[in-house]
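User: Please predict the structure of the protein below. I'd like the answer in structure-token form so I can feed it into my own downstream comparison script.

Assistant: Understood. Taking the following sequence of 116 residues as input:
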Amino acid sequence: MAQPRKSSGSPKRSSSKSKGPPSAKGAKRPSAKGPASAKKSGVLVSVADSHIDRMPEVADKLRAAGLDVGHMMGMTGTITGAVDPARVDELKGIAGVSGVELERSFQIAPPDSEIQ
């Protein structure tokens, strides 16, 4: 009969040297380009029907114009990302882009508040 192995007494530790919360597999970390990166706003870019089959090319042009591409959604013809609001008009002028909308946010009052 085999003898059970003795534990060394120290708990096993992960060899990962990552500090902070784990990220999603394949997720890109935002690039830190100094104070300008804090000024970026979320955008939704609509790709023209004539360019749906060339979305990667459109995304490359958007990146060259300063967009940090988040997601490309071929079924809806949209690309999400973040850009300096001063460059939104530049994105609108790219071939294959039919529209650019700035991200909007809102907050509703809690259910127990006086204002409904």
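That's the full token string. The domain at 36-102 is CATH 3.30.70.80 (Alpha-Beta Plaits).
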